[in-house]
Specification:
The chain has 450 residues and is α/β, with parallel strands linked by helices. It has two domains: 4-70 and 395-417, Urease, subunit C, domain 1; 72-341, Metal-dependent hydrolases (TIM Barrel, Alpha-Beta Barrel), CATH 3.20.20.140. The protein is built from 14 helices and 20 strands. It has helices spanning 40-51, 87-92, 96-112, 128-136, 179-191, 217-229, 241-250, 263-272, 281-289, 299-319, 343-352, 356-362, 365-370, 445-449; strands spanning 4-12, 21-29, 32-36, 58-62, 67-70, 72-74, 115-120, 144-147, 151-153, 168-170, 173-175, 197-200, 202-203, 212-213, 234-238, 254-257, 275-277, 388-391, 408-413, 416-417. Strands 1, 2, 3, 4, 5, 18, 19 and 20 form an eight-stranded mixed beta sheet that branches. A seven-stranded mixed beta sheet has the order 10-11-9-12-15-16-17. The longest helix is centred in the last third of the chain and has 21 residues, at 299-319. The radius of gyration is 22 Å and the shape is globular. It starts with a strand and ends with a helix. It binds zinc ion. The site of zinc ion has 4 residues, from loops. Residues 76, 78, 121, 329 line the site of zinc ion (ZN).
């Protein structure tokens, strides 16, 4: 059941990049924003009379002293990974039915943290479209979802090295070995309901630092042309300068990471109208808190360096009008669901130097483009779908408040208040789900008798 909601007195941050407006009113009915501004309360009364809605059915929410803003859109989130700790676990310890059941619980966490829409590039066992359809059909509760099926990888692999087979499918990966296979699997994923095609453009190669482009131009072009012929956009994981440039030139619509983008890469991005989802959150969490969760020592500096070097070029891209979107890469142990979805905005403010209003736009208006719903979502305007947050705080003064679930007072998703009273959804251990380590350290003789 949709609700009739009148939210009064809050400071409106509308998601368009405009300055906040104090003492604002919003009237919501039938899942849409019906009226905004000073007269919204009057319009609410008129509307109820016209539509035969009893005034008792109008829920009035006093938002005085609070901020009212669009629900967050997380443009890079893996809802089927269940806060995974290793590639081994992700690729070889996950039964497909259990993956779907566990994801349905995690979707609630995502929604409960103020994310009312998200985009999932690739899903374990390709379950993304089924999850999305289950949400849309009201079988399970979750934010609005757009999704890829699996990531397309060449036999070189991605970041999981030789865990990726020479051909076939494993976990979130579909290996493609020729132009024909690329065309075939792009079409198949679209047949299975992909909203996006995901290419894993870079991968790790033994003995070589960082990640390298592991697709050739012809292969990239084949994926992009096939997807575009069927009106489906393409995103690519690019953690290397060359990959950003080549992917933008060959037609990729959204670059994930864009690590170490150089001047030529930026030129290609500008020329081709490519958008970027930097996804600093994973790196920032590792750099700032990796030691607290036992991440390999030495990684902190590497990741901090990657953020700093990439940020300079992302800022330049932003200043030149490139669409920058916010993605948290939630789904890993370092970025668990429900905790870090707004950290990217904080990094955008601190490292890119965006204002809070500009940062919020990356997770609202710009995110709506990744959802392919830019005429329906992302801003608080009359006629838009009613996904919004009431925040007990001022994100303009302190953007980090958006990470604090205790401060996200109300979440309105699809025109209805989300129940935040229930206890936080969490599961106990699942047989065979996690990889057990024999030991966290090597037991040398010296260590034993130290
Ligand atoms: Zn990712």
């Amino acid at each position: 059941m949709k609700e009739n909601l009148l939210i009064s007195g809050g400071t409106l941050i509308d998601g368009t990049g405009s300055e906040p407006i104090p003492n604002h009113h919003i009237f919501i009915s039938n899942g849409e924003i019906v009226a905004l501004g000073e007269n919204a309360d009057k319009k609410a009364n008129e509307f109820c009379k016209e539509e035969g809605i009893a005034l008792e059915e109008l829920v009035e929410i006093n938002a005085e002293g609070k901020s009212v803003m669009p629900g967050l859109i997380d443009s890079h989130l893996h809802c089927s990974f269940d806060d995974v700790q290793s590639n081994d676990e992700l690729f070889f310890h996950r039964d497909p039915i259990m993956v779907a059941l566990v994801a349905s619980q995690n979707l609630k966490k995502i929604l409960r943290s103020g994310v009312t829409s998200f985009v999932d590039p690739d899903t374990a066992h390709g379950i993304g479209p089924a999850l999305r359809d289950a949400i849309n059909a009201n079988v399970i509760e979750g934010p609005r979802m757009k999704t890829g099926v699996q990531a397309l990888l060449t036999a070189v692999g991605g970041t999981a090295g030789r865990l990726i087979p020479d051909d076939g499918t494993v976990g979130y990966a579909q290996v493609v070995n020729s132009k024909d296979e690329i065309v075939k699997w792009t079409r198949r994923h679209i047949k299975y309901g992909a909203d996006w095609i995901k290419i894993h453009a870079t991968g790790s190669i033994p003995g070589k630092p960082g990640e390298l482009l592991v697709w050739n131009r012809e292969e990239l072009r084949a994926a992009c042309e096939t997807a575009h012929e069927l009106s489906i956009p393409v995103m690519a994981h690019c953690r290397g300068a060359e990959s950003v440039r080549v992917c933008a030139e060959e037609g990729v619509d959204l670059i994930l990471h864009a690590s170490f983008m150089d001047e030529q890469g930026l030129e290609a991005v500008l020329e081709n109208g490519t958008s970027i989802c930097p996804t600093f959150t994973f790196l920032a969490n590792l750099a700032d808190f990796g030691g607290k969760v036992g991440a390999s020592p030495g990684m902190e500096d590497i990741f901090r360096g990657e953020i700093e070097e990439t940020a300079k070029m992302i800022r330049k891209a932003y200043d030149n009008g490139v669409r920058i979107v916010s993605g948290s890469e939630s789904g890993f142990a370092l970025t668990p669901y429900g905790h870090w979805h707004a950290r990217e905005l904080q990094v955008f403010v601190e490292v890119l130097g965006l204002s809070a209003v500009e940062a919020i736009e990356t997770a609202t208006k710009n995110g709506a483009w990744v959802m392919q719903m830019d005429d329906q979502l992302g801003t608080l305007e009359v006629g838009r779908l009613a996904d919004l947050l009431i925040v007990d705080g001022d994100p303009i003064n302190d953007i980090s408040v958006l990470n604090d679930k205790a401060k996200i007072e109300s979440i309105i998703s699809k025109g209805k208040r989300v129940n935040t009273e229930e206890s936080w959804p969490e599961h106990n251990s699942i047989p065979g789900w996690k990889v057990g380590n024999w030991a966290g350290e090597i037991l040398t003789w010296d260590k034993a008798y130290d």
